[in-house]
Amino acid sequence: MLFANWPPPILGVIKVNCDASFDSISGEARVGARDRARIRDHLGAITTGDSTRFKALSTLVVETFDVRIDVCLAIEACL
């Protein structure tokens, strides 16, 4: 069931999944859900998504970059 651990937003609202990981030893970072489902509507339908890997210096940088990507995805999708 899709909503088992994910409560959907109310009608007319989108929900963004900020999902980032960071390895402080290698500097490897990844943002985005593995299934690329990052923005969903009230029905749980995937509105848009992406997954990106890059090098970073800290968890704060990775989390901030993730939020920036999500905002850009929402803007590009006219959400």
What features would you describe in this structure?
- This protein has 79 residues and is of the alpha+beta class.
- The protein has one domain.
- The chain has one helix and six strands; from the N terminus they run E-E-E-E-E-E-H.
- This is RNase H type-1 domain-containing protein.
- It comes from Hibiscus sabdariffa (roselle).
Which features would summarize this protein structure in a list?
79 residues, alpha+beta, three-stranded antiparallel sheet, elongated, RNase H type-1 domain-containing protein
Portion in beta strands = 15-25%
Order of helices and strands: EEEEEEH
The helicity comes to 10-25%
Number of strands: 6
Question: What is the spatial order of strands in the main beta sheet?
Answer: 1-4-5
The secondary-structure class comes to alpha+beta
- Straight-line distance between termini: 26 Å
Number of domains: 1
Q: What value does the Rg take, in angstroms?
A: 13 Å
Low-confidence stretches: none
CA-based shape: elongated
The DSSP helix count reads 1
Mean pLDDT: 81
Largest sheet: 3 strands, antiparallel
Organism: Hibiscus sabdariffa
Protein name: RNase H type-1 domain-containing protein
